[in-house]
């Protein structure tokens, strides 16, 4: 009877420790909100999937909630390489793509019947950018994450990136102070 009880206790403790280790290894999904953008008047939320101890991929969605932004939306998929001691944490470098759309009033130089004049047009500009970024991520034992990141990218396709227009949409920025949860 003692051997059966001892074997049962050993089996239960083995399963309990095994589940704890499994739970730690299965924390590969993360959801997050950019607190810095909320303060500025926009909503940015993201999802990240940890691939291994050194890399992850994710996507974020940026939508303004006030009129302080020309941007209508940004969808940003990214790949990160981490250099920290903890899995998918510490200093990171990222490469990203960014589908972005902006509303703006542009001034266009036009010529008709040998007369040059300027006209103002309301225009929605949609483009895609590639960029790079740097940042740092801290992960608590309970899975709460905090991240700081900064990046810059270049739009590739819009004709409104030329010098013929008052404003250039050639360069886009990416900045964040995000809070999230890894599960």
Walkthrough of the structure:
With 183 residues, the chain is an alpha+beta fold. It is 16% helix and 61% strand. It is built from 2 helices and 8 strands, in the order H-E-H-E-E-E-E-E-E-E. It has an 8-stranded antiparallel barrel. The radius of gyration is 24 Å and the shape is elongated. 25% of the residues are buried. About 7% of the residues have low confidence.
Q: Which terms would index this structure?
A:
183 residues, alpha+beta, 8-stranded antiparallel β-barrel
Largest sheet: 8 strands, antiparallel, barrel
What is the percent of helical residues? 10-25%
Order of SSEs: HEHEEEEEEE
- Overall geometry: elongated
Intertermini distance: 41 Å
Radius of gyration: 24 Å
**Helix-and-strand structural type:** alpha+beta
Unreliable segments of 5+ consecutive residues:
12-24
Strand content: over 45%
The strand order across the widest sheet is 1-2-3-4-5-6-7-8
Tally of extended strands?
8
Mean pLDDT: 85
How many distinct helices?
A: 2
